[in-house]
Amino acid sequence: MIDMKVFGRAAIAGVIALTLVSGCATKPDPNDEAAVQAYNEANDPLEPMNRYFFELNNFFDEILLKQFAGYYNIALPTVAKDSIRNVLRNLNSPVILANDLFQGEGSRAGDTSMRFVINSTLGVGGLIDVAKMMGYNYHDEDFGQTLAVWGTEEGPYLTLPVLGPSNPRDATGRLVDKLLDPLTWVGYIYDVGYINTIRSGLDIVDTRARNMQALDELKKGSIDFYATIRSLYRQQRNDAIRNGRESEDLTPAVTSESMIPSDGAAEAGQVTDAQ
Amino acid sequence: MGSMIGRRHVLTVLVAGFLTIASLVAGGGRAQADDAAVQDFITKLSNQAIQEMSDQQTDAERIAKLRPVLDEYFDMPAISKYVLAGYWRKATPEQRTEFINAFADYLSVTYGKRFVKYSGHKLDIKRIHDDGNGRTTAYTVVQVNNEDPVRVDWIIDTVNSQLRILDFRVEGLSLSDTHRQEFASVIQKNNGNVQALIDLLHQKSKL
Questions:
Q1: Can you count the helices (H) and strands (E) in chain A?
Q2: Is the model's pLDDT at A239 over the cut of 90?
Q3: Measured between beta carbons, which residues in chain B are less than 8 angstroms from residue A34?
Q4: Taking residues A129-156, what's their average pLDDT?
Q5: What's the predicted TM-score (pTM) here?
Q6: Which residues contact B27 (CB under 8 A, 6 or more apart)?
Q7: Which of A93, A273, B154, B192 has the CB geometry, 3.0–4.6 Å to B138, for a possible disulfide?
Q8: Chain-centre distance for alpha carbon A164
Q9: Of B121, B157, B159, nearest in space to B137 by CA
Q10: Which of B8, B89, B200, B203 to mutate to test the interface with A (most CBs of A within 10 A)?
Q11: Do residues A235 and A158 lie in contact, with contact meaning Cβ atoms separated by under 8 Å?
């Protein structure tokens, strides 16, 4: 609790200091084509504020979350961790189903429904993923993705305090998902809000524990950890929005000549637009 | 369940049939030959990784083996140009050459270290797509050790009639795009100075 208070104060101080004084990233010199292109591709006008929260989140990750996740990894056998994840995923089924339907993904909505019914019953309240053995594989879905499918732009990059990488679209999605979640209302009506706190806490620790090695390596290997996470977050979201479907429209972005700048000084404008 | 499998089977046959017709219409027999070449190329790379990257060796040994693989299988000059974006144009010819080398060193060190607990993998080529202009994407699924299988897409170019990798995406995360964003940020922080990035790459490449 004390840590949360400190966090809250630091967060508020950060917002005041950064949004009022220097919240916005310095716009590049319009004549510097390379800098303009980099600025546009980063799509991060609030970078100083985002970096501040990134450092803050990182700090609390190092002293708190990472320690917890480490104990969690050591203390629990894989079977137990998988059961916890299965339960968490099962609890999330109503939200996933709603978003499957919002996106008009009939067959995926069917998978989610079948998973929920099978795992809640045969799977003993979600502890065992029986549905997977029957060919109904888990998939994730959230309202941020639904908004994207409906054509909403992601907007500028944001680092949220505690919650981490986001953008206006995904932050809105998070809020809507909370409202869509039956457990939010159960917690509210029966005055058992702590069940959702425990659930979120477990979810955060479990996710962190599973990404321990990957994040450590990324942190050690990268030259600019913030920019790496920013890029990976966007790519990961875009992949989730496409439901991981193989997509040919990605390839031209990487390989088209306009994305690889020519040696001459020409067509810098095109390079910027090609995003 | 029976009906699910049945439906998938029918779909597979339909898709296979459609693809065959499409490839016949599109490129006659040529497309088939290219596909085989791409398949050989990816399989060769995959086998070499299994042989050379095993965990029974030090980081230094693995990194030393990975470095020539980058030159042999990857189009390092094109990747370098892409990740430097607009700053490629600003770099002097000497800086470009130095960057290509520094970047390859950096990649072999950072990725070489990630093979610590590696003990082989299984690679399945799912589909090969002709992107035109000699470019191809190979969609594969790779299973490392006994972990969950991951999707890996390889974007392959033809350079002087040799196949070379331009980029790969692991579960939709692109190597080239990630470094492009990262390096742009580093150069910006150093007031547009490309040399600062090169120096940092040298630093990060020290064991």
A1: 16, 2
A2: yes
A3: 85-87, 89-90, 192
A4: 95
A5: 0.82
A6: B34, B130
A7: B154
A8: 8
A9: B157
A10: B89
A11: no
